[in-house]
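Entry 14. Ran structure prediction on the chain below.
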Amino acid sequence: MLVLAREQGHEPAAVVDPSLTARDWLGLPAFASDEKAIASSGCRRAILAIDAPERRKDVFERYSAAGIEIVSLLATKPGEATTYGPGLTLQRSSFLSVDCALGRGVRLNVGASVFHDCKVGDFVSVAPFAVVLGRVTIGAGSYVGANATVLPDVVVGRNCMIGAGAVVTKDVADGAVVKGNPAR
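Output, structure tokens:
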């Protein structure tokens, strides 16, 4: 993410990660709390490299309420007539097709693909090399695991977890965790 941010003209001032114990990370000041980073850097813009949907939502909403703009990072270009909210992350080799509608804070990881006419809710994460085929709806806060495939016309509810390698052939209820082929 750091290289992608710099390529797009964003020079990060600090890194915030509660798990970091060092005082710097790749030459940037490192902070264990958001408040200390914001206070020391005068931050007005942020890039969210957070994979967990609920954590990304929490930080996004707190930063937005504090007047901090959430920046989108697009390593690839979205397809025609595709719309998206602030804070979209399209990692390298990801693919976002035409006529899709994505909410706030959506994250497509390396090699993830979302095909035509999909609706993706706020703070959804699509893990590396997952494939979401045409006319799929994914509810807010859901996570599609690495190498999973969601077949056309499926509706995935809110706050769902699709396991790595799963093949989703039918609708998934809100809050469900599914895995396997076919996913159950």
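The chain has three helices and 22 strands. Will compare against last week's run tomorrow.
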